[in-house]
Amino acid sequence: MSLWLALAIGNSRLHWAAFSDSRLLHNWDSDYWTAAAIAQFAADPASAGLSIASEVSLQAPVPLAIASVVPAQTDLWQQYPAQQILTLADVPLAKMYPTLGIDRALTLWGAICSLGAPVLVIDAGTALTFTAADRANTLLGGAILPGLRLQQQALAQDTAALPLVALQPDLNLLPPRWATDTPTAIRSGILYTLLASLQDFACDWLLQEPEGAIALTGGDSALLHQALSQQNPALAARIHRDPALIFRGIPALRNWSLI
């Protein structure tokens, strides 16, 4: 069995996947690592306590495919001895622009590999992004707006009196739209605005591509999909949620001569 790892470095977390050849075994998230932790992992993979470590034998150094949107983190991981840094040049999509994030390109490519094209990808992470491709695997474009937690943090940090609030722990209970207290008003404003954005882009996509696929991924995808299921169950049923979407197409991009 040829075991290797993929690492997607996001704006707030590390996103991991373990593969056996081209088969995805497991995916998980972690906090950022220090340079010392990376060096230790290269020498002794078992010392890192990875989720997959108890299930398979990790031989040092574990081959690692890396996609990053955080330059400082990219610099750290470039010191890892058995790595391939994925760039836009590795992704077989037409008409990508130079500043397109590698995360958006990879989630779109992963959606094409798993669902086919045309496809719209909605990534509910630090930012909420919409990215679409046509039947010829050509990038059609998309949009970016602040995600759920980024909006929460902005209100708390950039206002004098508004608190940092979490959404209600019960995902089966949407907040009242017309709130009568400040924390609930924040929950209402953020959640219903994000849901409105999601529905608007998804509905416009289906007008253009009635049989087109829609994929939802990212750390807040479960929360938004559950909320959408209550508000618009027919649309929610059209959306395929896949937390590991960014990894689906990476095996086809891996340079086996490098890692």
Automatic annotation (TrEMBL):
Localization per record: Cytoplasm
This protein's GO CC annotations: cytoplasm
Free-text remark on how the cofactor is bound: A monovalent cation. Ammonium or potassium.
Keywords in alphabetical order: ATP-binding, Coenzyme A biosynthesis, Cytoplasm, Kinase, Metal-binding, Nucleotide-binding, Potassium, Transferase
Cited Gene3D superfamilies: 3.30.420.40
Domain of life: Bacteria
Binding site for ATP: 8-15, 126
Positions annotated to bind K(+): 123
The protein's Enzyme Commission number: 2.7.1.33
Known pathway: Cofactor biosynthesis; coenzyme A biosynthesis; CoA from (R)-pantothenate: step 1/5
Enzyme class, first EC level, given as a word: transferase
One GO molecular-function entry: pantothenate kinase activity
NCBIfam families: baf, PRK13331.1
Record family assignment: Belongs to the type III pantothenate kinase family.
Quaternary state and interactors: Homodimer.
Protein name: Type III pantothenate kinase
Organism encoding this protein: Thermoleptolyngbya sichuanensis A183
